[in-house]
């Protein structure tokens, strides 16, 4: 009975880690309330489109093609190296 509340705590910690990773990999900078007004006017200044492409490709590989998660993580890492090192324009 002492571990009754541990499942919601673990779920919250995993969700917080997911939000933090998404925030640091999808957005170019921290978004404040003042920036939120301009978010839809100039999305290229806020979103990292290379990261979004890697995210969508990874989700498609996981859901549609049932690729193993470890292979997906490795593939996303290789894609990140290619996008951010070899193609710095994105």
Task: Provide structural commentary.
- This protein is an all-alpha fold and 90 residues long.
- The chain is flat and about 50 Å long.
- It has helices at residues 6-26, 33-36, 49-63, 69-86.
- The chain has one domain (6-86).
- Helix 3 packs antiparallel against helix 4 (69-86).
- 64% of the residues lie in helices and 0% in strands.
- The N and C termini lie far apart (52 Å).
- The mean pLDDT is 85.
Q: State the domain count.
A: 1
Which percent range describes the beta-strand content? under 5%
User: DSSP helix count?
Assistant: 4
- How large, in whole angstroms, is the Cα Rg? 17 Å
Extended strand count: 0
Average of pLDDT? 85
Silhouette: flat
Helical proportion, percent range? 55-70%
Protein structure class: mainly alpha
Give start-end ranges of low-pLDDT stretches: none
Largest sheet, in brief, is:
none
Calculate the terminal CA-CA distance, rounded to whole Å: 52 Å
Helix-strand pattern: HHHH
């Amino acid at each position: 009975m002492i571990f009754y509340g541990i499942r919601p705590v673990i779920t919250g910690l995993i969700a917080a880690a997911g939000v933090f990773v998404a925030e640091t990999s999808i957005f170019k900078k921290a978004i404040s309330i003042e920036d939120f007004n301009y978010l839809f006017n100039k999305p290229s200044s806020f979103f990292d489109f290379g990261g979004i492409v890697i995210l969508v490709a990874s989700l498609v590989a996981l859901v549609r093609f049932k690729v193993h998660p470890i292979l997906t993580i490795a593939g996303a890492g290789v894609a990140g190296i290619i996008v951010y090192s070899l193609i710095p324009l994105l």
